[in-house]
Amino acid sequence: MSSQDIPEENLPSTQDAHGGAVTKTAGDPFADPGLPPHEPRIQDVDERAAQRSERVVAFLFLLSMLATVGFIASYVSLPVDKSIYVFPIGHISALNFALGMTLAVALFCIGAGAVHWARTLMSDVEVADERHAIAAEPDVKAKVMADFKQGAEESAFGRRKLIRNTMFGALALVPLSGVMLLRDLGPLPGTKLRKTAWSEGKMLINQNTLQPLRPEDIQVGSLTFAMPEGMKEEDHDFQQEIAKAALMIIRLQPENIKDKRELDWSADGIVAFSKICTHVGCPISLYEQQTHHVLCPCHQSTFDLSDGGRVIFGPAGHALPQLRIKVNDKGYLEAMGDFAEPVGPAYWERG
Question: Cis peptide leading into 88, omega within 30 of 0?
Fold first, then answer.
């Protein structure tokens, strides 16, 4: 027997949201229980409570603005290498900690302010609306616009000027955090890319033995890697400095050196060139003894070390910078200054 065959008075009943009985009609076993009656909040009936909520929301937005200003101040003022102790994490970067905390507070306060605004001041009346076809009728469109205007009025966006203005301020300042981060994407290296750890009088130290190099230590056709005197692997900035100062030393027969300046800057046929490829900065380590060519393993840029380190193949844009060297009074190889041009890949201000 189907539900249509059962008399309506014999159908089981349920309770609605108000506790009243809702009888299921034939063919409709799940009746609409209805909505509970709306209970006004204290902010709906007490303007002083509404103003208190308004001040709380405004305070959160103001706190977000201050946190954004703190983010920018931390990014500009805190050094990268400064560390602080944070329990129970331990020693961490002061800059990273400050940036993370200030940005978290700025975003949290905007979200918390918006949530508190919605829960205490915006209308909380539940409205049931039937679903309609996608192509709405003109009267439906008019109703939507009317509902939108009504919602804008009920949100008190125009009346609560303190909330509106502080929200605009918080939303306007938060994007500045991202703008400040974009600074690192721009060419602001100053003179860092033009200078390395090499200077006049610094001896060439064998990177493997950590001993000063003499001319007799370098054989014809050999490739030796060197670093400046005074640089130590345990230094906190070693990786940063060696990335610019890494040097490769090759001994050629003086008659095989084609470039006159290269010959003048050498010592007994020993030439010193930057180890950093001028394409994207990969370390060069492959040397062809017969041709005096060095090959970058990343993208196969090839340089002729007997001809000023010029590019003979590959995507590199310019020759390897040469370091002028000499033999000092103690018989050790030493630099006569820094590289004459920036090492590594090209950049906007290189010229």
Answer: yes
Residue pair 27/11 in contact by the 8 Å Cβ criterion: no
Q: How far apart are the first and last CA of the chain?
A: 93
Q: Model pTM greater than 0.90?
A: no
| Homologous superfamily of the 204-335 domain (CATH) | Rieske [2Fe-2S] iron-sulphur domain (2.102.10.10)
Q: Rounded distance, CA 144 to CA 211, Å?
A: 82
Grade residue 81 by pLDDT with cuts at 50, 70 and 90.
confident
- Which tokens go with 215? 């001319």
Q: What ranges do the domains of the chain cover?
A: 1-35, 42-127+136-185, 204-335
- Where helices occur in the chain by DSSP H, the ranges are 42-45, 47-77, 94-120, 138-154, 161-173, 175-181, 238-245, 260-264
Helix or strand (DSSP H, E) at 204? strand 204-206
Q: Are 305 and 289 within 8 A, CB to CB?
A: no
